[in-house]
Amino acid sequence: MSQKVAVLGTGKIGEALLSGMIGAGWAASDLLVTARRPERAEELRARHGVTPVTNPEAAKNADTLILTVKPQDMGALLDELAPHIPADRLVISGAAGVPTAFFEERLAPGTPVVRVMTNTPALVDEAMSVISAGTHATPAHLAHTEEIFGAVGKTLRVPESQQDACTALSGSGPAYFFYLVEAMTDAGILLGLPRDKAHELIVQSAIGAAVMLRDSGEHPVKLRENVTSPAGTTISAIRELENHGVRAALIAALEAARDRSRELASGNS
User: Fold this and answer.
1) Cα dist. 215→171, 209, 219, 220, 257 in Å?
2) Whose CA is closest to 55, among 83, 28, 87?
3) Helix (H, G, I), strand (E, B) or coil at 57
4) 3-class secondary structure, 52
């Protein structure tokens, strides 16, 4: 018997998940969607062949519910869903900073909850999704969650206590790289290159460096040293980065992101 999966609050990440699942072999007929606007739900049906339903219908008919609404909207959604969710349904939350206990307190006793922090590269099937079990989630629930999110990239299991750190590193991580590319592009313009050429040089260099990090198994220090010749251009640039405290600024930035994730988890907006 096929397992039905419902994605509730289907924005960009939710749609990327639908697309990835269909591409990985899931039947569109087994995928249910909800959206705040009826025209959005109809758009998803036309584009992917999925079935638009109401939130209560999703709760009643799906075996797995993936909640992708904003953290501040999660309480209201659970109030609507809770009367309709049997305790044997798997509930997967994609809301940043919201602990599994928040769901367990509002759902039927024993309801399995899995917390997932993914990131925007899900839009190109290169996500890093971090998965944590709630009190009642079993290894089978985690494996099912990995199967779903594996359709849009890689997955990693961590204790829920590490979710805030993972949010800082990976959930927000793409933004740091975009910020770095933006700054390097501006530097390229300052050095006399047209914006499009500077952008192409930097993006391809970033892709190449990422593939080397992923595939070589080498420590990043070793890879950097391979580019850093004595008295050369790279070491001159590295010296300036160190003089301006870039390493310390990155560490402080990630600590700030971790702390903000904790604040969100405690209900401080």
Assistant:
1) 22, 10, 11, 12, 28
2) 83
3) helix
4) strand
Q: Would the pTM count as exceeding 0.85?
A: yes
Q: Are residue 21 and residue 152 in the same domain, yes or no?
A: yes
Backbone angles phi, psi at 168, to 5 degrees: -65, -40
Are residues 47 and 131 both part of a single domain? Answer: yes
Domain total of the chain = 2
In this predicted model, what pLDDT tens digit does every residue of 169-181 receive, in sequence order? 999 999 999 999 9
Structural contact between residues 100 and 135, judged by C-beta atoms closer than 8 angstroms: yes
57 Cβ neighbours under 8 A, 6+ residues apart? 32
Structure tokens at 165: 């750190």
Q: Are 3 and 20 in contact (CB under 8 A)?
A: no
- Look at the block and give the residue holding tokens 């940043």: 96
Residue that terminates a domain, selected from 129, 158, 187:
158
The pair of three-digit structure tokens given for residue 33, joined into one six-digit string: 């969607």
CA distance 24 to 210: 24
SS3 11: coil
Bridge-partner residues for 8, per DSSP?
Answer: 34, 67
H or E segment to which residue 242 belongs: helix 233-243
pLDDT, tens digit (0-9, with 9 covering 90-100), for 182-199? 999 999 999 999 999 999
Q: Are residues 14 and 96 in the same domain?
A: yes
CATH code of the domain containing 31: 3.40.50.720
Shared domain for 108 and 190, answered yes or no, is no
Give the integer Cα–Cα distance in Å for 122 and 125. 5
Residue where a domain stops, chosen among 128, 158, 188: 158
For residue 267, the model assigns a pLDDT of 67
Which alpha helices (H) appear in 49-166, and where do they start and end?
55-61, 74-81, 100-104, 139-149, 163-166
How confident is the model at residue 182, as a pLDDT?
98
Domain range for 151 is 5-158
